[in-house]
């Protein structure tokens, strides 16, 4: 398994008490598969992603990414693990307005110390993979919302992660563009062998997932079976 959460509990201060965001959550995601996590706002979906991304340390329980038990790792070691093994697709693309699509990817790969020539080839390959090869030289204001989200996805994949975490990728898109983005994530998951967790409140695009789980009050539950068209 490229992601394994074991009996994870996470709480936050809430006045004189503590609010439970995750309540004994266990989840395993193998490479080459897409797990969708659905649930209402405030159910714990974002907390689940933050823990899986090693951005937040749970109160109890274990988090294993690409065979590495993250318990007790230093901040530096966690940052290195994120750079090497984890790609994150944020809800909003947050692209740098002055950079082209290619340059958005190059910045991320250069931060990891990769040779510039290899970085450029990798960026071009990924933009081709998400259908944006012809828009590689365009800046964010020259791209549609769906195209910006595709750059966001390509950027998350530039360091060839084993774990891909996707946060509400369709929230700013209409139905058709949202469906296209989820289908793209599912295809890239299988082609590139990532273990992908996609958090969404939108149940209309779940047919692309290999498995769907539902989060309620910080706990994971099996979701109703979704009819898949594949």
Automatic annotation (TrEMBL):
PROSITE patterns: ABC_TRANSPORTER_1 (PS00211), ABC_TRANSPORTER_2 (PS50893). Keywords: ATP-binding, Nucleotide-binding, Transport. Gene3D superfamilies: P-loop containing nucleotide triphosphate hydrolases. GO terms for cellular component: plasma membrane. InterPro entries: AAA+_ATPase (IPR003593), ABC_transporter-like_ATP-bd (IPR003439), ABC_transporter-like_CS (IPR017871), ABC_transpr_LolD-like (IPR015854), MacB-like_ATP-bd (IPR017911), P-loop_NTPase (IPR027417). Residues 3-229 form the ABC transporter domain. GO terms for molecular function: ATP binding; ATP hydrolysis activity; transmembrane transporter activity. CDD domains: ABC_MJ0796_LolCDE_FtsE. PANTHER family: ABC TRANSPORTER RELATED, IMPORT ATP-BINDING PROTEIN. This is Putative ABC transport system ATP-binding protein. It comes from Micromonospora sediminicola.
């Amino acid at each position: 398994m490229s992601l394994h959460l074991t009996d994870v509990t996470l709480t936050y201060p809430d006045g004189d008490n503590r609010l439970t965001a995750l309540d004994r959550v266990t989840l395993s995601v193998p490479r080459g598969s897409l797990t969708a996590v659905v649930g209402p706002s405030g159910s714990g979906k974002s907390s689940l992603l933050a823990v899986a991304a090693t951005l937040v340390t749970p109160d109890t329980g274990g988090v294993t990414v690409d065979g590495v038990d993250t318990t007790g790792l230093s901040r530096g070691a966690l940052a290195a693990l994120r750079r090497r093994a984890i790609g994150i697709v944020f809800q909003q693309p947050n692209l740098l307005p002055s950079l082209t699509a290619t340059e958005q990817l190059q910045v991320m790969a250069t931060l990891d110390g990769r040779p510039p020539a290899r970085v450029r080839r990798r960026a071009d390959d990924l933009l081709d993979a998400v259908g944006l090869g012809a828009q590689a030289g365009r800046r964010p204001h020259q791209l549609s919302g769906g195209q910006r989200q595709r750059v966001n996805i390509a950027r998350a994949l530039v360091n060839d992660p084993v774990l891909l975490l996707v946060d509400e990728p369709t929230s700013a898109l209409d139905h058709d563009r949202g469906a296209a983005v989820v289908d793209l994530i599912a295809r890239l998951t299988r082609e590139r062998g990532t273990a992908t967790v996609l958090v969404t409140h939108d149940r209309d695009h779940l047919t692309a997932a290999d498995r769907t789980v539902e989060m309620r009050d910080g706990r994971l539950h099996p979701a109703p079976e979704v009819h898949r068209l594949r």
